[in-house]
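Provenance and format

Records in this collection were gathered into a single text stream. Each protein contributes a sequence line and a token line. The two records reproduced below are adjacent in the stream.
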Amino acid sequence: MGENNIAANEGQKRQPSHKILIGTVVSNKMKKTIVVEVTRKKAHPLYARVISIRKKFYAHDEKNDAHVGDVVRIEESRPLSRLKRWTLKEIVRKTALVPETTVDAEAGAAR
């Protein structure tokens, strides 16, 4: 009877259950790395008031697609560096803000 259970389980491929979080990009100044802030609501254990808990995660962004203010979905992965344990899965919503541009030295001197 035990052999049948093993054979039945071999036919099914198990997907690794990686955690998925949704948050806002707060920094993209590093190469191929973004910092994502995830906010969750939780009831305070004593006062029963709803409080928001914010936590920052470092995520790998291979193509440098995400910008500050974007809402992104990140997925848990193997350790990529000392702090990076997440990868960018998709950009849920792009920000409407225009990224900052650097002012040329010549343009600043002409004023």
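Adjacent record:
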Amino acid sequence: MRSWAFKASDRINTIVEAIVAVLMLLLVLDVWLGVADRYFFHWQLPWPEELARYLMIWAAMLAVSSGISRREHIGLTVLVLAMPRNLRRMVLIGMDLVALALFLYVFWYGIGFAQSGESRQAMIFGTSLQPYYAAIPVSAAIASIQIMLVTVRDLGLYLDTGIEQEEAASC
């Protein structure tokens, strides 16, 4: 089960990172276009700033699941490492469950938020804001899946050194 969770988490993370890389490339190109427009060509394009905002929101929200997959999120490891090993493991699993509850909450209420964007229009594009607002529930859903997978993968052992960490990595 742990090896399956490791592989599934890694596959999802690879796809998400590829999407984030494409979004970041588009963001850089869009910003360059906006700078070139403003200072060199004077086309007065109205959309580069707004497109950059939506690309950045999607990229940043999707990148959350990559941080979860790699265990690169913020944690109070000094306090956790001071605990006995058995308690530490329970606390780390408990923290994963709290994070899962948070992301499921954001997902649930993010659906309503995204649906509320259907009746609103983007300032420049004149399109519905729903695809842009959908970044919230989509990223929360992916983060929830990643949290479940890394919890199974690590079983609270990811801060331990030695045999337990090697066992977790080999799965």
